[in-house]
Each structure stands twice: as structure tokens, then as C-alpha cells.
Amino acid sequence: MKRIGVFTSGGDAPGMNAAIRAVVRTGTAQGLEVVGIRRGYQGMIDGDFIELGPRDVANTLQRGGTVLLTARSKEFMTPEGRAKAAQNLRDAGIGGVVCIGGDGSYRGALKLVEEHHIPIVGAPGTIDNDLYGTDYTIGFDTAVNTALDAIDRIRDTAASHERVFFIEVMGRHAGFIALEVGIAGGAEVIVLPEDPTSAHACAQVIEASASKGKKSSIVVVAEGGYEGGAEALARDVKLCSGIEGRVTVLGHIQRGGSPTAIDRVLASRLGAACVDALLAGASGVAIGEVNDEIRLTPFKEAVEKRKDINRRKYELAKTLAL
Ligand code: ATP
Q: Where does the record place the catalytic residues (predicted)?
């Protein structure tokens, strides 16, 4: 293998640039040429490739987003689109590819491996932390800290005005962000897709908190924790209990920003491990970090197995909200 490609795909996540940088620099150090594929799978289909040397990735480590840009490609979902992408890779002499993205990106990579036998390994780049085979995904820690900063600010207002706040964080199918910021932000209630609650149950907890002398409450709601999100939960809580709450939807501010040290180090390590894996002949595997060790998991397993939230942490959150 003389030339490898690297691309980012799906939602951007802080730390993706650190992963690209690590691929370029460890690849170069091991005598490889590295090609950046812009705009994810769409760029693979369009042949949007750029040569990347160590200096091209200078000054990117601390930047959020992805310098290679990212996209969601409908064309790649078709066999014709994938055939075009595979041909472009072959024409460019690319003998192996590093895919940095979430589960959809891994599904696409798996198809490219199965249908066109192109060696691909993946690094988990998504703020959601919802990928099996790694304790944490690149971008998760930054997203948690960004959401936490917002919650701390809202807590000031909630406490000063003695109000209830419903704060929606990202997580349509997984509550990792909600659980982490819920604990770190001292939320009275955390609503997760893994354990959906009713408005009535939520109101009961808020009322119990008030009866114990709490003058304000923070309810952290994962997008997928309640049908309609925080907005709907606040409305239903008011309907069933009369409790009035303010709603803040954090939205896309959670996706951007300079990556934390934890994300930079994780991304650097995983990016380098992707190059090592390709050189060792690996393909169709996701590279993760489990208990501080690099772990290879087949794409199929990484996308099909569900990573559960830490139930003990969830119970702890409830105890600490007393
Ligand atoms: P995030 O977790 O941030 O949403 P993701 O990688 O899951 O990231 P998706 O939009 O689901 O983001 O996937 C990225 C791209 O991967 C899609 O736009 C599509 O081109 C490709 N892809 C997703 N699923 C498949 C599939 N089943 N077959 C082929 N390609 C796919």
C-alpha cells in the first residue's frame, strides 16, 4: 500500500481535524502518500481529492468542524454511486481508506468493502457516542462540555428566578450526552431515550424536589427522550400539574467549537491506529478505544450492536438529585 485516502462523513464533530492530522502525519511517517477526500462519500463519487502533506494539516488540531468538509450523499446509497466512488479510488491509486464518521458512514464503508473489496477502516467521529466498540467517540467530550457550559448559565437564571427549566440536548436514539451533562450539571430530572418517562412522572419528581426545599429545577431532555422533545414535555408537564417551565433547545451549538484535550488525544490516537490497522492488512473494521486500549470491531458489529448507557451512572444521577 503506497497511497491512502481519508474522509469525514455524516455530522461534523469536534476532533475530526485532529484525527485527519493524525492520519496524515502517521501515514507520512510510515512512507505513505495521503489523499484527502472532500465532502465525504459525495466527494468520493465526484473525485474531489486533494494531496495532504504534514504541513497541510498544520494549525487544524484546535479547530472544530472538519477541514475536509462533510456531506450526506444520497447517490452513495445506490450501487451505481458506490461503483463510481470505488472506480475513482482505484484511478487515484488509493489502496486503503480511513473513514471518520458515525454509524451511517460505517454502513456505507461496509458496503464499499463488501461490493468493491476496497480496504477501509473507521474512526468513530460523532458527538452522540452511540457507536459500539469504543468507550467514547470523537467529539462527545466536547459536546458534553459545551452543553454543560450552557446548563451552568441557565442554572444561574433558574436559581435566581426560582424557575423550572427544560433543556433539550442532542441524542435522538441515545442518551449519552443527556446523562453525562445531567450528572455534571446537577439536573433534577434526566429524560433519556433508553428510559422514556411520562410527563406525570416528571412532574412528580419536580414536585418532590420542591417539597424538599428546592426552589428551582433543571430537567435535561435528550431529543429522543420524549415525543416532541423538551417543548412537548414542558407543555405536558404544565397540563398535568400546572408547573410552568421555560424551555431551551441547545441544538447545533453542541456540534461546533474547539475540541477538548480529551477529544484531541482520542482523535490523534484513533487516527494513528487507523493507519497502523490499514498497514497491518485490516479492512472492514472500526477502530475504537476500550479501557485505554485500541480495539478493532467489525463494522457489522459496530453498527448492529447497541451500546447501552451506564445504568449505574443513571441510578447515581437520580440519587444525587435528592
Ligand atoms: P452522525 O452520527 O453524525 O449522523 P453518520 O455517519 O451516522 O453521522 P449519516 O448521514 O447516517 O451520518 O451517514 C453518512 C453517509 O453515509 C450518508 O449520507 C450516506 O452517503 C452513507 N450511508 C449511510 N447509510 C448507508 C447505507 N446503508 N448504505 C450506503 N451508504 C450509507
A: 128
Interhelix angle 103-116/79-91, nearest 10 degrees: 70
Question: How many A from CA of 107 to the centre of ligand 1?
Answer: 7
Superfamily of domain 140-256: Phosphofructokinase domain (3.40.50.460)
Centre of ligand 1 to C-alpha 87, Å, is: 20
Query: How far does residue 102's CA lie from ligand 1's centre (Å)?
Result: 7
Hey, what's the torsion of the CAs at 303, 306, 307, 310, to 10 degrees? 170
Q: Which of 48, 128, 236, 263 is catalytic?
A: 128
Q: What would you measure as the largest C-alpha separation in the chain, in angstroms?
A: 69
128 counts as catalytic: yes
ipTM of this predicted complex? 0.97
Q: Is 133 annotated among the ligand-binding residues?
A: no
- Report whether 295 belongs to an annotated binding site: no
Consecutive 10-residue runs of the chain (322 residues): their mean pLDDT? 97 98 98 98 98 98 97 96 98 98 97 98 97 98 98 92 95 97 97 96 94 92 97 98 96 96 98 98 98 98 96 96 85
Q: What CATH number was assigned to the domain covering residues 3-139+259-304?
A: 3.40.50.450
